[in-house]
Amino acid sequence: MKARFLCFLLALQTVSCWVSVAAMRHFPPTDNAMSHPGPREAPGQVSSAPNAIESEKGMNMEEEAYNRGVSKIGSSPPSCEHKCYGCTPCEAIQVPTNNHLGVQYANYEPESWKCKCVSSFHDSMHFIWQASCPSIKNILLLDSEGKRVAVKYFSDEWPTNSAKIAFEKYVFSKTVKTNARTEAEITLLESNVIIYKFVQDLHFFVTGSDEENEIILASVLQGFFDAITLLLRNNVDKREALENLDLILLCLDEIVDGGMILETSGPLIAEKVTSHNMDADNPLTEQTLTQAWATAREHLTRTLLK
């Protein structure tokens, strides 16, 4: 009787541990960061995200962590009592220089296609868990009335132009009365972190998710502002901005691409934009294919904004 009771307590403790782990992290991962052939490969194989960990088959995860000086993240929580895909843990290690994760899969498959973990196994045949990299949702440059001067969106959160304009008006109304002229301010609106700064009759905004690092968003804002200041020769106002709108739009292209941060140094951004502008004045026959494409994009931008 006592032995049964001890077994019951042990089982209860194990289940409690599983539940606590499951509450901390969703399993299976659902962000579809990258495709993976699946768990039927050789045990110990490590798959990696771009620019992350590249390993040979059979590399032990502990050895990989030791050799590369990375930190072990842990194992995924089990989802049922069967030893199938949803239950067998996978191990993840993280490279300290970025947020990419490498995942080690065990060699297993459902004991039975009637196993209640089959759906998790099937849905998770192709995935690799990858932590989110810093991402920008939009960069806004508005005037003193909340009207757009230059904006660029990198998220599908605002699918229509009317939705984007509504968001811009909402952000402006919530920030216009704050004192953001001496230094940048931060606010949280609709689960978005917004860093903003006002100069003359121009309002600068950078938006990220509520999980983004505010320091990174602030560095993007400062880089954008510094580049504009250099390109407009310290005449940062609406009139100068509209007269040099092509430079501002090129500036946005140099800072962020598809939400990924490319550059945050104002002088470097301004230098790249200036080089594009100088190339536009050269005859087309003297330009490379890349330079010609940059020139065509600039002319198209001017046409669309007329």
UniProtKB/TrEMBL annotation:
Residues 136-277 form the AP complex mu/sigma subunit domain. Residues 1-17 form the signal peptide. It is found in: Cytoplasm; Golgi apparatus membrane; Cytoplasmic vesicle, COPI-coated vesicle membrane. Its main location: cytoplasm. GO terms for cellular component: COPI vesicle coat; Golgi membrane. It is a peripheral membrane protein. Keywords: Cytoplasm, Cytoplasmic vesicle, ER-Golgi transport, Golgi apparatus, Membrane, Protein transport, Signal, Transport. Pfam families: Clat_adaptor_s, EPF. GO terms for biological process: intra-Golgi vesicle-mediated transport; intracellular protein transport; retrograde vesicle-mediated transport, Golgi to endoplasmic reticulum. The keyword Protein transport applies. InterPro entries: AP_mu_sigma_su, Coatomer_zeta, Longin-like_dom_sf. Belongs to the adaptor complexes small subunit family. The coatomer is a cytosolic protein complex that binds to dilysine motifs and reversibly associates with Golgi non-clathrin-coated vesicles, which further mediate biosynthetic protein transport from the ER, via the Golgi up to the trans Golgi network. Coatomer complex is required for budding from Golgi membranes, and is essential for the retrograde Golgi-to-ER transport of dilysine-tagged proteins. The zeta subunit may be involved in regulating the coat assembly and, hence, the rate of biosynthetic protein transport due to its association-dissociation properties with the coatomer complex. Oligomeric complex that consists of at least the alpha, beta, beta', gamma, delta, epsilon and zeta subunits. This is Coatomer subunit zeta.
